Automatic annotation (TrEMBL):
Chain segments annotated as coiled-coil in the UniProt record: none
DUF4395 domain: residues covered: 11-151
Origin: domain of life: Bacteria
Species name: Pontimonas salivibrio
Pfam families: DUF4395 (PF14340)
Keywords: Membrane, Transmembrane, Transmembrane helix
InterPro entries attached to this UniProt entry: DUF4395
Residues spanning the membrane: 20-39, 45-65, 96-115, 121-146
Name of protein: DUF4395-like protein
Length: 164
């Protein structure tokens, strides 16, 4: 992508990675509070933190990464200290990734409310894994899923190994 582009919806790709790092830490706190004993009062605190994380996923889904609180923190505190990005990316894939995070965390909350054992733990672990991969390695699973779905919608099979 071109860095000189000022098209609406173009974002610095380092912003979502910054947000994924914050999300990873918060989800790690949830898991640390939930895993020792799932029926203690600390579990209730973890549940409420998971609800906050879910609300942040909803925010990112509805308004996009550019208007997310983590995006505002990145723009105000981090981006001024960095060199300009080598490219800009469309915000649609990270926004879709936020939707995937919202779905995963909403399922975890629903399972918790329905008293399904370890439903919240599994959802938090899946969300943590995705956020961690994005933050540390730049591998956005939701973005990759977005691209696969986009190719399928256009009638092209996703690129990958061919079978004889």
């Amino acid at each position: 992508m071109n860095t000189s582009s000022n098209r609406p919806g173009q974002i610095d790709p380092r912003g979502p990675r910054f947000g994924a790092a914050i999300t990873s830490v918060l989800l790690l706190v949830v898991l640390a509070l939930v895993l020792p004993v799932a029926d203690t009062p600390a579990f209730d605190g973890a549940w409420w933190l998971f609800v906050v994380i879910t609300a942040l996923f909803a925010w990112g889904t509805l308004l996009g990464p550019g208007k997310h609180p983590y995006g505002a923190l990145f723009k105000a505190l981090i981006r001024p200290r960095l060199a300009p990005p080598s490219y800009l990316e469309d915000q649609a894939p990270p926004r879709f990734a936020q939707l995937v995070g919202l779905i995963v965390s909403a399922v975890g909350i629903t399972l918790h409310v329905l008293a399904v054992p370890y439903g919240l733990v599994i959802a938090a672990a899946v969300a943590f894994l995705a956020a961690f991969l994005n933050a540390v390695f730049g591998l956005c699973l939701g973005c990759e899923l977005y691209n696969v779905l986009l190719r399928l919608r256009r009638g092209r099979a996703p690129a990958g190994p061919s079978t004889p």
